[in-house]
Amino acid sequence: MADMNDARAALKHYFGYDGFRPGQEPLIAAILAGRDALGVMPTGAGKSICYQIPSVLLGGITVVVSPLVSLMADQVAALEDNGIHAVYVNSTQSLDEQSAALAEAASGRCDAVYVAPERLGTQQFTNFAARTRIALLAIDEAHCVSQWGQDFRPAYLGIGDFIAALPYRPVVAAFTATATERVRHDIIDLVGLRNPQVSVTGFDRPNLYFDVIKAVPSVKRQWIERYVTARPDESGIIYCATRKETEALADDLRDRGIAAACYHAGLPAEERSQAQRDFVNDEVHVVVATNAFGMGIDKSNVRYVVHHNMPDSIEAYYQEAGRAGRDGEPARCTLLWSDGDINTRRRFIDRENDNERLSDDEAEVIRNRRRVLLDVMIGYCRTTDCLHRYITSYFGETDAGPCSGCSNCDGEFETIDVTRIAVAVSRCLHDIRELLGTDRDGRPGCLGAGKITQMLRGSDAQEMHDWRHLDSADSYGALEDVPAARIRDVISQMASDGYLRIRDGKYPLVDYGERAAETARTDFHMVIKQVERPVSGGGPAS
Ligand code: ADP
């Protein structure tokens, strides 16, 4: 049986490399030992080698399942250049070519055969599989099996059946760049990985400095103007949530004499590609854009990415912010946010029911998933922990190194003890349940964050007195001395932390979360970040 010494020799022989990267070793060792594997690494980190090396060492062929038919010819050609014998079978070939490729794969001479997931279910391929010794089934872009992601591809769900129908079970190894914990579980469950070696590595981008600033819209704008003005020679991208904001901010910058390009999907194609070209060729240094900008743009010297609004998920944020510093040199990723951003994002999600193919229930499930993703994003804005670690642990990487730079670890914030407020909110929810009873669906009565805040502040609004005796609750007026905005912040943080849960419906209602009981404990303690700190745009770049 081949071992890691053989693997290192093969790495040198076929690829000319002297050593494995951190995540590769445990995955290859597991596969060689006959154990399933799940490799989660960002693009470019070196997933392919994790199945290509075993393909030459295991006795039998490796079937590589890949969704990208258009890349297969190139992938196979690259392997052949390195002396690894591989073929592909896909719809770009004539039927004769397909048969010839399969015959070659069955001949025993081949190390690997690349196919799309749809092919696994065809008679032609199951015949091949029944008479060929498949040593390893490698699944590329394995997140496509999960409906949690944007890339769901139904044919991936057939992989499990394909494995089950084989005369004996090969080692199964799945690879992806975008696996959050939910997606990882889906991959393990739906593909049917058995006790896999899971390796998550390479998500940290140590050369990026992460910075989070809470600011109202006018301050955001001033900050950006100052920041960009202070860096006339650096390339940067400024992401805005809407086309309108993109245009307004680009105009603002131009008024200040900064050549800024504007990019969003509503502009004519020619204008867009001009903006892209100008940016890539350093004709303009700054692009103000919506999230439509960036796909397929290869510019390594982007020194900063500023978000003018909170994105709707950490995935989206990291993808956009990650366009900074591709050259490995220091770069800064600043996220500016306001409470208004949260409301806007929530409204976007609520309104998103225009997908006619979905039933009401399915649409609601999807909206709820998006709400969960948004809560994690809000958590990033409010967390007092290291921002690098917040991101890497979200992607499931638990043993990334120490922080290489972020505004939290630099201690640029203060915390406020909000234990008393959190406890009062929790008690208020209890009072509301008592006063409201259950609703028509049997769920405990709840109110929105606005009403809860009014109650706690002892508001004199007529409905406090007239409706359900809200003013008779013990918690009524319990936080008379606390500003409403602070109570709202705490409610929001409690939802991010799991003490509360925002219940969906026409209006978001505040209910107890899975950690609610902790707020009743005597040792319960909660702090929030003092987010309004003085902002200066001209500070150190990176
Ligand atoms: P992924 O599939 O994760 O996107 P690839 O497998 O295409 O990444 O690898 C990205 C690049 O890194 C390739 O050029 C590959 O040859 C190189 N590479 C992979 N592993 C190593 C290694 N151990 N040492 C040096 N280079 C490597």
TrEMBL record:
Q: Where is the Helicase C-terminal domain?
A: 211-373
GO annotation, cellular component aspect: bacterial nucleoid; cytoplasm; replisome
Give the Enzyme Commission number. 5.6.2.4
Cofactor(s) required for function per UniProt:
Mg(2+); Zn(2+)
- Output the Gene Ontology terms for molecular function: 3'-5' DNA helicase activity; ATP binding; DNA binding; four-way junction helicase activity; hydrolase activity; metal ion binding
The biased composition feature labelled Gly residues covers 536-542
Q: Does the keyword DNA repair apply?
A: yes
User: Looking at its record, which EC class is this enzyme?
Assistant: isomerase
Q: Does the record carry Cell inner membrane as a key word?
A: no
Signal peptide residues are none
UniProt catalytic activity = Couples ATP hydrolysis with the unwinding of duplex DNA by translocating in the 3'-5' direction
Q: Which domain of life is it from?
A: Bacteria
Q: Which residues form the Helicase ATP-binding domain?
A: 28-197
Sorted keywords for this record are: ATP-binding, DNA damage, DNA repair, DNA-binding, Helicase, Hydrolase, Isomerase, Metal-binding, Nucleotide-binding
Coiled-coil ranges from the UniProt annotation? none
GO biological process terms held by the UniProt record: DNA recombination; DNA repair; DNA replication
Q: Give the UniProt family note.
A: Belongs to the helicase family. RecQ subfamily.
Q: What is this protein called?
A: ATP-dependent DNA helicase RecQ
